[in-house]
Design brief:
The protein is mainly beta. It has 4 helices and 36 strands. The protein has 2 domains: about 90 residues, Udp-n-acetylmuramoylalanyl-d-glutamate--2,6- Diaminopimelate Ligase, Chain: A, domain 1; about 210 residues, UDP N-Acetylglucosamine Acyltransferase, domain 1. The chain has an 11-stranded mixed β-sheet with strand order 7-10-13-16-21-24-27-30-33-35-36. Strands 6-8-11-14-17-22-25-28-31-34 form a 10-stranded mixed β-sheet, with no helix packed on it. Strand 3, helix 2 and strand 4 form a beta-alpha-beta unit.
């Protein structure tokens, strides 16, 4: 399970999954039990996964999942041991099945389990300001500080020597040691994931967490969304400036520095030792290599290989940009 906080309601009978997707399949054992829903990479035998783009065909060829929600055009990209479940809308169908396994992961209402920190076990070993409240299933290490009017909602683990600023809300998050989260941050809420269907917007569950590794600093006003089908990860010794948005499933490597007002769209992977200038925008589902430098104000819409410097929109090698803009 990628999220230790949400309860998996599996195993689920395959017959229920087939019924939910309105499929008519005969040559299959409908009494088989499906343990979990995961992405292509982390799926195991007796899990169900999904494939909606050829961009992930290499992962699809090697997935261990027993079943995959996909389209007729993509079914041949799957491993031999993975049975395709053919649908018209892969992501909408995946959302329906995820809701069966993790019904608590759909909504993000305020946490009504929270109580004043004075009335918790942390009263004596955490230094805190006024109006700090704590939810269920929270763990806080030694020598931590929490600022005024901050809410540590349910399902949070904070390591040792951490500092959490004022007016911050955290939930569904694991924070390792020596991490600084500055004022006015929102960490661990669900991401911007929904499907426009006729006159409705159908939100899909976010079953991942936010994981912030050791020695990171999260600047004021940052928003870090928890993962949908995998975790959002901030690698160790990474520093985020103010007013940054990290969307669901983003992975940021260690020793990365990101300046203010940068936005990184969902499921993009940022390598190690990356530097991103202020107000840059990075599209979703991209791979940004190690030791990459992205100039401020750039718009990144394609993968960037290791050891590259880019700028402009669309972002291109910095030498090309300077040559084309003399």
């Amino acid at each position: 399970m990628i999220n230790p906080f949400f309860k998996n309601h599996g195993p689920i009978l395959l017959s229920k999954i087939i019924s939910t997707l309105n499929l008519d399949i005969d040559k299959i054992n409908k009494n088989q039990k499906v343990n979990d829903i995961k992405d292509l990479y982390t799926s195991e035998i007796n899990d169900i996964t999904f494939l909606h783009s050829k961009k992930y065909k290499d992962l699809a060829k090697n997935t261990k999942a027993s079943f995959c929600i996909t389209t007729n055009n993509l079914k041949n990209e799957l491993s031999k041991n993975c049975t395709p479940l053919i649908v018209k809308n892969v992501l909408l169908s995946t959302s329906k099945i995820t809701s069966i396994f993790y019904p608590q992961a759909i909504d993000d209402h305020f946490d009504d389990s929270c109580i004043n920190i004075i009335d918790t076990k942390f009263n004596d070993n955490v230094k805190f300001g006024e109006n700090v409240i704590i939810g269920d299933n929270v763990d806080i290490g030694i020598n931590c500080k929490i600022g005024h009017n901050t809410i540590i909602e349910k399902n949070v683990s904070i390591g040792n020597e951490c500092s959490i600023g004022s007016n911050t809300i955290i939930r569904n998050t694991i924070i390792k040691n020596n991490v600084k989260v500055l004022d006015n941050c929102i960490i661990g809420k669900h991401g911007f994931g929904f499907f426009p269907i006729k006159d409705n917007n159908i939100r899909y569950p976010h079953i991942g967490i936010v994981l912030i590794e050791d020695n990171c600093e999260i600047g004021c006003g940052a928003t870090i969304d928890r993962g949908s089908m995998s975790n959002t990860v901030i690698g160790k010794n990474t520093y985020l400036d103010n007013q940054i948005h990290i969307a669901h499933n983003v992975k940021i490597g260690e020793n990365t520095i990101i300046a203010g007002q940068v936005g990184i769209a969902g499921s993009t992977v940022i390598g190690k030792n990356v530097k991103i200038g202020g107000q840059a925008g990075i599209s979703g589902h991209l791979n940004i290599g190690n030791n990459v430098e992205i100039a401020g104000g750039s718009g990144v819409i394609r993968d960037i290989p290791d050891n590259t410097k880019v700028m402009g929109y669309p972002a291109k090698n910095i030498r090309e940009f300077l040559r084309d803009n003399k």
